[in-house]
Structure formats: structure tokens, C-alpha cells
């Protein structure tokens, strides 16, 4: 999301990057991504996408869950493959692997061909580490919200759509099931009168629901 510098809370959680929800047959959930879409603006990783997703999993399956947030350095896809390689011990036991990269690259107008190479390398590295039956979700890059003064929004929005078409091409293929999760932008009405932290937490909860829904009804188009 692009907002004014006075509105965006430039903060990230400093607490533990993982958690456990009690229950049988615990599923390991890992969210790899750009911090601006996985845990920016909240004071605890308990309000991150990964934690919300674990709670959605517990509600829908009555099973336990272990969740982990794995940010990509500098929030760019170019650093995602190396991040996986450096954390292979955390990847190998993952049951649900969620990739949320592209927001910063969309704003930076990273060339689409270059960005796709990084995404492909990320998925290839993950495939080598993940269990054979692991589920993989590629979350689309959410719509960029911006105030009216952001004159270049149209250019960034077109690039975001271009990168999302690349994500769509990479779902439903490979040895692991890949599903695309479509993420709606935070409704404007939801942000009126609400503290920024609450808006970010609500957005992450909404996206966790979208990811859970995508897993239930895979879209391989």
C-alpha cells in the first residue's frame, strides 16, 4: 500500500518471528515475503499474515499449527532465493509455504523479465527443500492504494498488474501444488477513523482468509 509518509507507520515487530497454536497434527506454516505486506505497521508478529493464517487454519481444521515469518532482505525478489538457502533448516519441514513478494518491486518498477527470473529461482529453491506434498501459495501483489498527490500511481499500478500476470503463469505447475491467492486492497471505508496499526492488522487478517479460501478452491488458470 502506498500512503502518505505521515500515515504509514514505519515500524515492524521486534518480538519473536514464530509461534505455536495447540492442537493435534500441527501443520507448519511459513510466510516468505516483503515486510510491507507481511508484518509492516503492527507491533507484534502475532498480528502478521503468518499468525493470522495459522489461526484460520486452526479454526477450519481444528488442528494445531506452527507459524513462521521469514522476511526477504530489502524486500526485493532478488534476495528471496538466497534467503531460502540460508534458512533451509526452517524450510524442509514446511507444510504450507506462502510467497508474498513483489510489492516493493512493483513500486521500484523492477523490469518484469528480471523479476520473473527471481521468482522462478525462488520457486526452484523452495521445491528442492519442501516436502513433496507441501502446498505452495503465491499471493498476488495487492492493489497499491495512494493519496491523490501520488501522480505516478498509474505507472506503478500497470506494473503491478504485469507482475501479477507473471505470478498467475507460475501457479498450478510444478511438482508441488501452487495456488494463486487474490488479495483485495483494504477498503477505504475500513480506514476511516481507525488507527494505522488496526488497519494493517485488519488487512493481514483479511489476506489470511483469502489465502485459506484459495487453498480450499485452487485456481490454476
TrEMBL record:
InterPro entries reported in the protein's UniProt record? SGNH_hydro_sf (IPR036514)
Q: Which Gene3D superfamilies match?
A: SGNH hydrolase
Q: Where is this region: Disordered?
A: 1-22
Compositionally biased spans, kind Basic and acidic residues: 8-20
Question: Where does the source fall among the domains of life?
Answer: Bacteria
Q: What protein name is recorded for this chain?
A: GDSL-like lipase/acylhydrolase family protein
Amino acid at each position: 500500500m502506498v500512503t502518505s509518509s505521515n500515515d504509514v507507520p514505519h515500524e515492524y515487530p521486534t518480538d519473536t518471528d514464530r509461534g505455536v497454536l495447540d492442537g493435534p497434527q500441527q501443520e507448519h506454516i511459513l510466510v516468505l515475503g516483503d515486510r510491507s505486506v507481511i508484518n509492516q505497521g503492527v507491533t507484534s508478529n502475532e498480528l502478521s499474515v503468518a499468525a493470522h493464517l495459522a489461526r484460520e487454519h486452526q479454526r477450519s481444521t481444528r488442528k494445531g499449527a506452527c507459524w513462521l515469518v521469514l522476511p526477504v532482505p530489502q524486500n526485493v525478489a532478488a534476495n528471496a532465493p538466497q534467503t531460502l538457502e540460508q534458512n533451509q533448516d526452517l524450510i524442509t519441514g514446511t507444510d504450507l509455504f506462502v510467497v508474498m513478494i513483489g510489492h516493493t518491486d512493483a513500486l521500484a518498477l523492477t523490469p518484469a523479465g528480471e523479476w520473473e527470473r527471481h521468482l522462478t529461482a525462488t520457486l526452484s529453491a523452495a521445491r528442492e527443500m519442501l516436502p513433496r506434498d507441501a502446498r505452495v501459495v503465491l499471493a498476488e501483489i495487492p492493489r497499491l492504494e495512494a493519496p491523490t498527490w501520488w501522480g505516478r500511481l498509474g505507472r506503478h499500478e500497470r506494473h503491478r498488474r504485469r507482475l501479477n500476470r507473471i505470478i498467475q503463469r507460475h501457479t498450478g505447475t510444478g511438482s508441488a501444488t501452487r495456488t494463486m491467492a487474490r488479495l483485495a486492497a483494504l477498503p477505504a471505508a475500513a480506514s476511516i477513523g481507525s488507527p494505522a496499526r488496526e488497519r494493517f492488522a485488519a488487512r493481514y487478517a483479511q489476506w489470511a482468509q483469502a489465502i485459506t479460501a484459495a487453498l480450499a478452491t485452487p485456481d490454476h488458470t
